[in-house]
Amino acid sequence: MRAVVVTGYGPPETYTVGDLPAPEPGPGQIQVRIAAASINPADVVLPSGVYHDVTPLPFPHVPGNDFAGTVSAVGEGVTTYRIGDEVFGQAIPRALRSLAGTSRPSLGTGALAEFAVVEADTSFVTHRPPSLGVEEAAALPTVGLTARALMATADVQPGETVLVIGATGGVGTAVIPLLARAKARIIATTTAADAALLRALGADETIGYAASSYPSGVDAAFNLSLPSNDLTAVAAAVRPGGRLLTITYPVPEQEWIGRSDVDLHFVIDMDGRLGDMRDVADLAVSGALPATIGRRYTLDQAPQACADFVDLHTTGKLVVTI
Questions:
Q1: How far is 246 from 279, CA to CA, in rounded Å?
Q2: Can you give the pTM of this predicted structure?
């Protein structure tokens, strides 16, 4: 099969597209013929070597967590799926097994390939509804799960003001429609070029990225882009008793934000306690969770997609069709 191949630690410019043996499903696994995949931070961070000491990466490595495709083979004991079923979901590299959920972890062989093998018994893979397009399904898994987890943790009430930092990325463009549905007042950071898109998704006000632009007295702030050890300015925008939610590493500590009167939450849900892929599918089909696709690439262009994810300002998701 053809796949994006990483042969050693380095930047995306070192990735190539080459031939590898197609992975075969073992017991409890399914093989998926990939139709589309989308780019996520792990696709470039893990091969960079930043976390080499914590999670060594075996080579050759095929990146890609989020996918949509067709079941092409089933392993022993699988009853949930049949050959020909349309599926989509998130499956993280097996090298991250220690960081995956304790119950039914979703692991895979890499979605930037013609075929991938993923676990069948996981809440992060499900059947793709006919009304959800392949590219949209590939764009939604990680950002949809994260947006749901943010909303469940924040418990936003109608009329509350929420500041969204990094609103133009994949998670931002997924969570803003959910905040709008919750009848929150949304203030989103963006560039002037993306302001109209965010307003169309439901933002009430858009501001620049500079901390000097942040409002004061917001009920909640969602940090989707800044390192979590650099949130003092974001915390300063939150009212006493308000909430600050962040999805970025390093895992934050209360003293880092300089506020003891703000509830700090690091939001990550590797067990699917706050929502699973069926919930993402239902929200997408209802129109509450639209997929925002900023750029599209072919498999041969997938290394460039990974490089663009690092080097360019991206809006929504970068999707690779296989």
A1: 22
A2: 0.95
Looking at the structure, tell me whether residues 80 and 103 fall in a common domain.
yes
CA distances from 96 to 57, 91, 121, 153 (A): 9, 10, 18, 24
What domain count does the chain have?
A: 2
Please state, in angstroms and rounded to a whole number, the distance separating the CA atoms of residues 189 and 175: 13
**Cα dihedral sign, 124-220-249-199:** positive
Nearest CA-CA partner of 226 in 182, 172, 271: 172
- 307 in the same domain as 259: no
Same domain? For 135 and 18 the reply is: yes
Of residues 316, 319, 307, the one with CA closest to residue 16: 307
> Domain residues for 27?
2-140+291-321
- Taking only the tens of pLDDT, the chain with its 322 residues reads 999 999 999 999 999 999 999 999 999 999 999 999 999 999 999 999 988 888 889 999 999 999 999 999 999 999 999 999 999 999 999 887 767 766 778 999 999 999 999 999 999 999 999 999 999 999 999 999 999 999 999 999 999 999 999 999 999 999 999 999 999 999 999 999 999 999 999 999 999 999 999 999 999 999 999 999 999 999 999 999 999 999 999 999 999 999 999 999 999 988 888 999 999 999 999 999 999 999 999 999 999 999 999 999 989 999 999 9
CATH number of the domain at 185, please: 3.40.50.720
